[in-house]
Amino acid sequence: MERRNLIIIGAAVLFGLVAVYFANAWFSGVEKQQERVAEQRAMTRIAVADQDLAFGTALSSANVRLVAWPVDSVPQGAYREGEAQRLLGEGKVAIRPIARGEPILVSRISERAVLSANIPPDMRAVTVPVDAVSGVAGFVTPGDVVDVLLTRQIPGDGASSDDKMTTVVLDNVQVLAVDLRASEQNTDPSESKTATLMVHPEGAQRLALATQIGRLSLALRNVEDPGTGARRVVTSRELGGGLFIPARRASGSPAPQVRGTAATPPTAQPAAASPRPSGPGMTVVRGTDTSFVGVQRHGY
């Protein structure tokens, strides 16, 4: 009985060793076949990022390296081995974030003037002043879409210093940069002093004029909302419930009254008395009118 068990165990061990041998031989054959295929496949060398490159990072030999890449799968716009030295010698910078190991493409780098490379030929970049309030408390970041509002004094001689009006100068405007930040990766809110907007040529003229005649504010909007906002003029009088636009008045006329408020009738003033003649006389009263009548002397 013990002999039979030993025979069974020995046979199992033998079959196991044979299975391991054949499995090892099969896997070795597959690996060698893959190596032969790789050797037969044409390869080249292209430039890739040797580390994560943020927006505005200058390319150099410290952050760019050459790696082997299959010729039939080289991305369009990649820099091959012969072009890598020219790439590093031209002072290029990244205009888009590039991950480590990712090929360096023409569309992701530019010269030092990186902002102008992002402006379409028929558009312009205009910088406007903002503050913590007009800049939406620092939540406006590059890539956002805003409406530009102008608040200014109501024109006309009948307007007081408290009469203001707000109009929409431009709507659906893309923000290119905030202060000196032009990267879309930095989304942390921070108080800004300027915002650079991408507008059409006429919009650039409007913004240049608006900065001289009033105060600009930015209204942050949803980037997926392509519609235009309200274009109606809003005045300070509307905040109190009634629309009032001061009109020009002639010199010496009374100040305009707010609609809906009863004006106080003017108080009747007595007619100005004629100049009193010199010499003796008497005062004659007729109702509310008075007059002075001179009396001549006779025989004196």
UniProtKB/TrEMBL annotation:
The keyword Cell inner membrane does not apply. Residues 259-281 have a biased composition (Low complexity). Pfam families: RcpC, SAF. Residues 246-285 are annotated as: Disordered. Keywords: Membrane, Transmembrane, Transmembrane helix. InterPro entries: Pilus_assmbl_Flp-typ_CpaB, RcpC_dom, SAF. The chain crosses the membrane at residues 6-27. The keyword Iron does not apply. Residues 44-110 form the SAF domain. This is Pilus assembly protein CpaB.
